[in-house]
């Protein structure tokens, strides 16, 4: 296995993915005012968080800015990365196996649960571990929480139109 593939597998793994989905879900739940997180939204999380440039823009964006403010940053001249978000749908398709495995592990670990009738995902617990995570992992969690808060504040329709995707 080439070195880059090995490094990617070490970072992009179902255990870390499960924790990231959980942190997203916690922030979504806090921001959504009782609107459940529908299952298709979960498939956007890892492609957003594991994509370094997208995560960096998220981390450099205040939580109060919201989803539209985050998306608008990609057209600013100092960032000028207008090609990143249009590829989100492709990245979601490429990472759907990892997302499925991560979601399955999060369910088995009782971090998340699914309401079968509505196909919605919610956190079983919101108590986050305070120690034992590297700075890099905490940054991934923080990026997931940003996305969860932003996406939880808007409708599914607005998520699709703002990010330019179809769920």
How would you sum up this structure, described in words?
The chain is mainly alpha-helical and 167 residues long. It has one domain (14-163). 60% of the residues lie in helices and 6% in strands. The protein contains nine helices and three strands; from the N terminus they run ααβαααααββαα. The protein has a three-stranded antiparallel sheet. A hairpin with a 4-residue loop joins strand 2 (112-115) and strand 3 (120-123). Helix 2 runs parallel beside helix 8 and helix 3 (39-49) packs across helix 6 (88-94). The chain is globular, with a radius of gyration of 15 Å. The N and C termini lie far apart (34 Å).
Short description:
The chain contains nine helices and three strands; from the N terminus they run H-H-E-H-H-H-H-H-E-E-H-H.
Which bin fits the share of residues in helices? 55-70%
Largest sheet, strands/sense/barrel: 3 strands, antiparallel
The secondary-structure class comes to mainly alpha
How many beta strands in the DSSP annotation? 3
Low-confidence stretches: 3-9
Architecture blueprint of SSEs:
Elements (H helix, E strand, L loop, with lengths): L2 H9 L2 H18 L5 E2 H11 L2 H8 L6 H8 L14 H7 L1 H13 L3 E4 L4 E4 L11 H18 L3 H8 L4
Antiparallel strand pairs: 1-3, 2-3
Helix pairs in contact: 2-3, 2-7, 2-8, 3-6, 3-7, 3-8, 4-8
């Amino acid at each position: 296995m080439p070195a880059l593939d090995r490094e990617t597998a070490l970072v992009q793994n179902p255990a870390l993915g499960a924790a990231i989905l959980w942190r997203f879900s916690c922030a979504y739940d806090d921001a959504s005012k009782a609107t459940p997180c529908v299952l298709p939204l979960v498939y956007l999380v890892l492609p957003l968080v594991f994509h370094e440039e997208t995560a960096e823009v998220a981390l450099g964006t205040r939580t109060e800015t919201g989803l539209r403010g985050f998306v608008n940053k990609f057209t600013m001249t100092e960032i000028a990365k207008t090609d990143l978000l249009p590829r989100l749908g492709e990245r979601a398709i490429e990472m759907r196996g990892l997302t499925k495995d991560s979601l399955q592990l999060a369910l088995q670990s009782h971090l998340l649960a699914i309401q079968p009738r509505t196909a919605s995902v919610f956190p079983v617990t919101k108590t986050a571990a305070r120690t034992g995570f590297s700075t890099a992992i905490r940054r991934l969690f923080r990026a997931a929480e940003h996305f969860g808060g932003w996406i939880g504040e808007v409708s599914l329709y607005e998520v699709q139109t703002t990010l330019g995707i179809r769920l």
